[in-house]
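Quick illustration for those who missed Monday's session on complexes.
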Amino acid sequence: MGMTATCRAHPNIALVKYWGRRPGSPPELNLPATGSFSMTMGGVHTTTTVSVEPTGADVVLIDGKPAERRAYDRVVAHLDRMRASAKSQPHLRVVSQNNFPQGSGLASSASAFAALTVAANEVLGLGLSGREMSVVARQGSGSAARSLFGGWVLWNAGSASEGSYADQIEPPSHLPVVDLVALVSRAHKKVGSGEGHGLADTSPLHAARVASVAPVLDEMLAALARKDLARMGELAERDALAMHGVMMTSSPSLLYWEPGTVEILHAVRAWRAEGLRCWFTIDAGPNVHVLCHGDDAPRVQAKMRALGYEGDRLLACPPGPGPTLLREHLSG
Ligand code: PMV
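Prediction with PMV bound:
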């Protein structure tokens, strides 16, 4: 058992989304109703150091501050899951740092639970494989299953916990893409994804979307294999709109879009009509990810700047790597 380990992991953006859990499955397992597909995001990351804590309780520091109660409990529940299969069950100290501001509107749970899983696997000496860590990370946050791998990643829905993990389909270098993220709003979302997944099947549209995902994933993977970014972008836009259709028609209704969100959706389609290779997708929030061909990214970025998205309102993320263990540890 190593005393200290540090891991850096990246968030991911889904092009085919996970929204809604497998019917009848225990919510805490985060078993999805469908498979999903993502790009791991370079340039943004969470770094997490895990060490054995000599005092009588787990300690969790996030971005320099003791974690709030809910975040603390979520991290400890994850450590408990991992300690359950370890030879010894020490208290642990978790120090975590995001290089993107918390509350920037960019979800950090995928990178956070991927980094925590990899670092705790080292410290507890569990010797888990990438797939096994994907299964564990999934239980911290569903989308974290995909951040266990770099590049272009498929999360197989599976029917039982051990079979629900992600795999890398292609490495980051496969496609020259940049994800330009417009941070439309920094407001904390009122309904987080954990609660949202539980509302999906109150929408009359959910069953239709679930039925559509398997063929969409097949088409997405075929388009990825032939490097057909245009088809991938079209499919990603349509699935994002399908997911938001489900959200908007749930009870209660989830309306994550702000006026600024809709402005960019129209703008992206107008830019595409001008010949720029760019497509949008949106997670459970108001921010818009504009996926562009690398060669067109500077022009798309200039257009986004004209809409007010620059400085800390814009992130530019190429496909990123999987988690890496670092030699240098965070103090705190
Ligand atoms: O991992 P969670 O429970 O935060 O769910 C992620 C939900 C979406 O970001 C909206 C879609 C996805 O597949 O990442």
